[in-house]
Structures are given as C-alpha cells and as structure tokens.
Specification:
Blueprint: E1 2-6, E2 10-16, E3 31-37, H1 39-49, E4 53-61, H2 65-73, E5 81-85, E6 89-95, E7 101-106, H3 115-121, E8 130-133, H4 140-149, E9 153-157, H5 163-169, E10 175-179, H6 180-190, E11 201-205, E12 211-215, E13 221-223, H7 236-249, H8 254-268, H9 281-286
Parallel strand pairs: 1-4, 1-8, 2-6, 4-5, 8-9, 9-10, 10-11
Antiparallel strand pairs: 2-3, 6-7, 11-12, 12-13
Helix pairs in contact: 1-7, 5-6, 7-8
GO molecular function, one term: ribokinase activity
GO cellular component, one term: cytoplasm
Active site: 238
Amino acid sequence: MTIWNLGSINADLVYHVPHLPGPGETLEARSLSHGLGGKGANMSVAAARAAARVVHLGAVGKDGTWMVDRLLEYGVDTRCIRSVGPTSGHAIIAVDDAGENLIVIHGGANRAIEAGALFADMDGAARGDWFLTQNETSAQAEAAEIAKSRGLRVAYAAAPFDAGAARAMLPFLDLLVLNAVEAAQLEEATGQGIDTLGITDVVVTLGGRGCRWIAHGADPIEIPALPVTPVDTTGAGDTFTGYLVAGLDRGLPMEQALTLATRAAALMVTRAGTADVIPDLKEIEDVAFGP
C-alpha cells in the first residue's frame, strides 16, 4: 500500500546552546548545522525508512530544490511536490545540553498549497492507502476529505496545535497522534475527553514515559519508553508518527506498530539533527537498548 503524506518541507537551522534562551536574553551558539526538516518531511523520511512506500504532497520555493533531492535520496516519492513561490519553509531550532529544544517556524511555500492541486495529485491513491498530515501546511482538512472519499485511512498529528485546524480534521480521522499538552488543548477546545471523540485510535505520546493508546471503546494501553540518554529531542515525535503509520500500513497490529515506533523515537533522541539522521528499520532492529 502507499502513505500519502501532506506535510511541510523546511530547511532546519539548528543552533546548539548551553541553555534555552529566556525573554530578552542574547545567547551565543556553540555550533550551527543546516539540514532537511519540517514535520512533514521528517514523517515521510521516517515512514520510508520503516519500509513503507511514501508519496509526499507538498511545496517548496525556488530555493528548495535541494530539499526535494534529499527526500528522493531517502526513498520518498517526490513527484507531487510543487514549486509555488520564491521562499521555502524554514525553522530556527535551539537545542540545549539536555537535548530540549525551542523552535521558530516560517511556513513559506508550505502555506501556499491549494486543495485543487491535491485533488489531482492524489488521483493515484487507492482504497486502503493511508493519508497522513499535520498542522504545518494549508489545505489539511480539504485533503483529508478527498482522501476519505476515496477510501483512504486518515492519520493526523495535531502539531503544532491549532484548535480550528484540529476541529476541522476530527470528522475524517481514523488515527490521531498528539502529545499530552496537545491532548489537554484539544479537550479544552472541544469540551470532550479525547476518549469520547469517536476516533478509532488515539495515541498520546508521553515523552520519556512512552505513549498511551486509546482504542475506541477500550481501556487505554501504556507502551513504556526505552531507557536512553537524550542528545536532541527534535524530530522524535515525527519519527514516532512516521514509523507508526508505516507499521500499520505494513499490516502490523497496533501494539506492535507502537512498540516499533517507540524504539525508533528512542534511537532518534540519541542523535543530533532531524530528517537527515532518522534511523532506518535495520538499525532499530539491531540496536540493543540498555537498562
């Protein structure tokens, strides 16, 4: 099957700092790295490295050719990535000594995606494929409606959280992935518990504690995190989501797919960087996580 991922493509500027800056603080960075990122690109790379066929739906500016080439190099089908303007998306990321991060995003071309183009781009989608998206592009709900009408299963990572975008997506979802803060924000926005939204599967990521799976009408199941020493948490959630959807696309049971995704995220936080350092399936199967 195929994962059709409507997602952001960003150039990541990563600054390593002794601590995350406070309001009004000027802080000298220890180093700077430049690479491929964006929640959408990260998820596409993760899913491709988890042995799924991935078609990326997205846009870059005239400065973004290198990012499309990098995605293709990593095994992602890039034929549906359009050039829509002069400026691609980018992110400024500060990472401290504990691996925590602070991120500022400029949407650029990611916010210029049109639903009409997506209707044509998804012409090859087949019933049973997955559609995946998050909140760093335009036209998510319109694309989800197209996907649902064509018999695709719809997965949504509700980040960065936007109450209006989340409410618009809810009618189409088979799988919702969000962290604990986003879960609380969604409950406040809807006035409902996330276990009462009628979604087939909800997964709440809990950082160093793992994740919680809430199947509709069933008791929650906890999947524990693996013990690692974090270097950089940037992209860990995207890696988790990409691996989870790829596992489900390959026919894994949900609990097994969640375990695989948890292992991928654990290995990811031991590395500095985003899409360029997402582990592949063999690495995850080979690595021994210690106590």
